[in-house]
Amino acid sequence: MSMMSIEEVANYLGVQPIRVERLEREHLLIAKSKSEDGKPLFEEDDVARYKQLAERLGGI
């Protein structure tokens, strides 16, 4: 299980980090844990599934 930071998710999805924070806040992308500094960490498989779903629905 590989964990991704907000910045890594933003790069993967091609969006700004603030957008990833909003997705997490709105429970559209669920953080699995928190980093040492309290930032959310996301599971790589969940991010890939979110990207696939978002593309099917018309974009991220």
Give the low-confidence spans. Answer: none
CATH class: Mainly Alpha
* Beta-strand share of residues: 5-15%
The CATH topology, please? Multidrug-efflux Transporter Regulator, Chain: A, Domain 2
Number of helices: 3
Shape: globular
Please indicate the count of domains: 1
How many distinct beta strands?
3
Organism: Alteromonas confluentis
Protein name: Helix-turn-helix domain-containing protein
InterPro entries: DNA-bd_dom_put_sf
What does it look like?
The protein is α+β, with helices and mostly antiparallel strands and 60 residues long. The chain has one domain (3-57): Orthogonal Bundle (Multidrug-efflux Transporter Regulator, Chain: A, Domain 2), CATH 1.10.1660.10. 50% of the residues lie in helices and 13% in strands. It contains 3 helices and 3 strands, in the order E-H-H-E-E-H. It has helices spanning 6-13, 17-25, 44-56, and strands at residues 3-4, 33-34, 40-43. A 3-stranded antiparallel sheet has the order 1-3-2. Strand 2 and strand 3 form a beta hairpin. The N and C termini lie far apart (24 Å). The mean pLDDT is 93.
